[in-house]
Amino acid sequence: MENIKKPEKPWYKKTWVIVIGILILLSVIGNLGKKDAPKNSTLIQETSNTSNEESEKQWKEVYTFKGNGMKKSPSFELNGGKARLKYKYKAPDGLGMGVFFIYVVNDGEDVMKTGGIAEVMSQAENEESESSLQKSAGLYYLYINASGDWTVTVEEMK
User: Is 135 exposed, middle or buried (0-12, 13-18, 19+ CB in 10 A)?
Assistant: First the structure.
């Protein structure tokens, strides 16, 4: 009788690879719920040499959207230059943490159908900060998903 060798398992089906993958996944999930993360983001501003023309430019409000919970804004236009989101969020009292997501979506798309990556995601109980926004010129709308009161302002350098 001949000895028949079993074919070797591919690397991704080996037990040690699966165990390491599960440990990494559990570590990521565990870090999502940590409460000791800082409640307010710190903005670090870099200084750079700019021309006189650029130094004369200022942040101008494009659109401000206020509400509570999940909402979609009317469309607004971005010119493709430097842009940022300024936001303020407060979770309902007593929860100890919140849920706050800001999506900047191309006009005509439905983020609930196409999906997307949020520009801002926070689980803080309260937060007031800003985030840089890299979008090309075009029409957009804000899709906000939150468990509390919020204000979001879109600004461009003009």
Answer: middle
- Please state which architecture CATH assigns to domain 59-157: Sandwich (2.60)
pLDDT (tens digit per residue) in 104-113: 999 999 988 8
Per-residue pLDDT band at 37 (split at 50, 70, 90): very low
Please enumerate in sequence order all residues whose Cβ is within 8 A of that of 137, keeping only pairs 6 or more positions apart, or say none. Answer: 77, 78, 79, 80
Question: What SS3 state is found at 109?
Answer: coil
Structure tokens of 63?
């659109």
Question: Domain extents for the chain?
Answer: 59-157
Residue 138 has what pLDDT?
96
Give dist(CA 54, CA 157) in Å, integer: 9
Per the structure block, which two tokens stand in for 87? Answer: 């936001």
Spacing of C-alpha 28 from chain mean position = 17
What stretch of H or E contains 32? Answer: helix 15-32
Query: Does the model's pTM come out above 0.70?
Result: no
- 64: its two tokens: 């401000």
User: Is 135 within 8 Å of 147 (Cβ atoms)?
Assistant: no
Burial class (CB in 10 A: 0-12, 13-18, 19+), 6: exposed
Give whole-number Cα distances, 65 to 11, 95, 102, 118, in Å: 50, 24, 11, 16
